Amino acid sequence: MAPGAPTLLLLWLLWFPGFPPRAAGCPAACRCYSATVECGALRLRVVPPGIPPGTQTLFLQDNSIARLEPGVLAPLAALRRLYLHNNSLRALEPGVFRAQSRLLELALTGNRLRGLRVGAFAGLAQLRALYLAGNQLVQLLDFTFLHLPRLQELHLQENSIELLEDQALAGLSSLALLDLSRNQLGTISREALQPLASLQVLRLTENPWRCDCALHWLGAWIKEGGQRLLSSRDKNIMCAEPPRLALQSLLDISGSSLICIPPSVHVEPLEVTANLGEDLRVACQASGYPQPLVTWRKVAQPREGQPRAQIQPEGGAPRPGGPGASDTGSGMLFLTNITLAHAGKYECEASNAGGAARVPFQLLVNLSQQQQLQLAPPPPPAAGPVSHEPLQEAGSMAFRALGLATQTAIAGAIALLTLTALLLATMICRRRRKRKKAPGLPGEGALFVNDYSDGPCTFAQLEELRDERGHEMFVIDRSKPLFAEGPTEAADGAATGPAQGLPLQPPAAYELHC
What we know:
single chain, 8 helices, Immunoglobulin-like, five-stranded mixed sheet, alpha/beta, Leucine-rich repeat, LRR (right-handed beta-alpha superhelix), 514 residues
């Protein structure tokens, strides 16, 4: 070590506490002194490595940094001020500043930010001033600044903000200054400003304000007490539309002139039949003032995995978000590759500050004959009790696979059925021989007796007879009662007719039709 080096090192540490000498801990081309690092206007594309962990102020302005990589700022937990203005940042990843719990001032002016994700400022609980002017922001979504409870200044001027959602400024209870001038705001709701309990300065000038019923509250609020938040220049809130109020100050217009026209909706046709696999577009036209927002939705909530409709603005690409998306003026229901799940009722809704209107739409899905056959349920089983157990033959492999007890039971049942059939055949033969020997009934003019040809067929009514030519016939013999009667009743029945006591007529022969 050269003579006097320890003395120089001691002097450096005394002059710049918290920082080693430049040669030991300063990024190339940057200037480091005290707890400050200057890396501005160096054409950097990324945050340079080697920034000392004790840095409290970091200048990175006027470079070409397009992205803050996750974790790139994690070692810089001591940061108090970070200047990233005039770079090329297009987005902020959620949690990118999570390690900067001591940060007081963050400058992001003059970048290319088009949107801010919820959680982009998570971890900045001590932040006092946030500069977002001169970006390309189009809308501020609900809860964008929720993690900034101590923020006092929010600079959003010179963007293209058209929409400020009702909860976009939620959590900013300490905010004293809000600058929304030189944007594209046409309206702002009372709910959007309600979280700002500490507001002292509000700038709304140079926006294309639409002076209708939705802005009535702002004029009344300014006249009643909001003037204290506006400078003489800021009070000049000029109307851009409707044409009859253009270039007039909101404060000079009577409340009765701030009107809205409720929407009307038109869908043509109201019912469409589409084929499977087709694409479908249905336009929903809405009119009113201000121009209504148009939303398509399916009336019945789809089940898990069921296809959803998409909104497509007229003449544009499909909008993300499905049937809950909205479009100003005209909305297009866009369905691709139609299936049976798409069929049902839909609803087109148009809404503005004056109210809402809805029109139903019915989609039917047509099936070809072949598709109907493919989707038809199987035919019902035949009527009557049907056994679903397989029939087994005695010699089959399945029969042999049965247990010994089961085989014995089946064999016994078959033998019993065979014996019953033999006994029945024997009885029929004996009765046939007796019939041949028995004399004919007196007064019979025909061999077979039957006075009706329909009715229940029972074993007591059926007899098998053989005529002289050997033909077998099945007849109903009414001379033989259904149930056995006593001798007296049988004799009386042979002598007289039923109930009236008339003589029996010669019976006629009929073949039985069961």
